[in-house]
Amino acid sequence: MHDASPHLDTSSDTPFRVLVAAGGTGGHIFPAVAVVEQLQRLTGDACSALFMGSMDRMETTLIPKLGYPYIGMPIVGFKGLRSASTLTLPFKIVRSINIARKALRSHKPHAVICTGAYVSYPVGMAAISERIPLFVLESNYNPGKTNARLARRATMVVLSFEGSVKFYPEQYHNRLVTLGNPVRSQIYSNLTQEQARLQWGLEGGRPTVLVFGGSLGAGSLNKAMTNALQNLSSAPYQVLWQTGGNYHAPAELPANVTITPFIDDMGAAYAAADLVVCRSGATTIAELGIARKPAILVPLPSASTGEQQHNAGVVRDAGAAIVVADADCASLLVSEINRVMTERDMLVRMAEAMGVMGRPNAAVDTARLILNHCNWQIGVRT
């Protein structure tokens, strides 16, 4: 474990500086953003955050849009032994570590946050070599490859699930803490269910199913829903279906099915729903817990370490969700939706179980952990 770096100024008249490595997917980016939001709040807006990631993934545009400075690195993911990029990967790793070390020496952060995926590796290694406290955020039930490597020398590893401890060697257990997966503030909605439905152009008093597959959509979910449109037309509920930008909607849709390519206000979408159908990424699981929404989960089968399968299994075992395999989506999804939506007692039980899993204070608890370790006086703005 690292102590606060001795050359850093922790006096109250200087901003708290943090460097964040996050990228690839929203599941890595948004937990980091949620923690930075709380660091800003707890320091009375005296927090300076610098983000690092790849040169060609979503973080390159998303992070600057959120108002944070950003530095890209040439590192790419491992694409197999036969890929030409694999030959140059060691050089890109070394170059990325050097870029990260230069950023650390320039920004002089009090702490470094890594949320996983390959972009975290050079930043984490640079933080270790520069003796800067390193906080690893593991969102999934089982750790990703990069986080598992960084955990060996991290200051603290923040887990989302209690059961995740078993994946780490016992000698690391003193640096593990389960606080939950940080969720961005926009997930919280003050809208009533009726208000949220009306905002989406839905009937205010009609039961609602929210179906979404992330910003790019989910092919198996879209295919299952498309094939079931005729059956859905006579359903007693309505559907809000987020398809992703590459989906081409049929010319005619049932009156009770509303399609949107993207969802900017996830808080309002969750608020409108009685049941959510989605993938089982860690961020989605955390959001469902806070929104207290029962779910039908369709794990992404291509996830690198089977993390979505593990995540879904934890939620299913808690009684908060039903799991449908991706391969069975076309044949089973809509029948499972119908079954759950006609059993109100089941919906209520699942919602209660999902609420028990929710950790609404994960972001602020993680921010407090970082500030306390760095001996930073917390001064929440009023």
Outline of the structure:
The strands form two sheets. The protein has a seven-stranded parallel beta sheet, with helices on both faces. A six-stranded parallel beta sheet has the order 10-9-8-11-12-13, sandwiched between helices.
Mean pLDDT: 90
The string of secondary-structure elements, in order, is: EHEHEHEHEHEEHEHHEEHEHEHEHHH
| Number of contiguous helices | 14
Number of strands: 13
In what order do the strands lie side by side in the largest sheet? Answer: 3-2-1-4-5-6-7
CATH-derived architecture of the largest domain: 3-Layer(aba) Sandwich
- Shape summary: globular
Low-pLDDT sequence parts: 1-8
N-to-C terminal Cα separation, in Å?
Answer: 34 Å
Q: Could you tell me the strand content as a percent range?
A: 5-15%
**Helical content class:** 25-40%
The major pleated sheet works out as: 7 strands, parallel
* CATH fold annotation of the largest domain: Rossmann fold
Radius of gyration of CA atoms, rounded to a whole number: 21 Å
CATH class of the largest domain: Alpha Beta
Tally of structural domains: 2
Assigned CATH superfamily of the largest domain = Glycogen Phosphorylase B
Structural class: alpha/beta
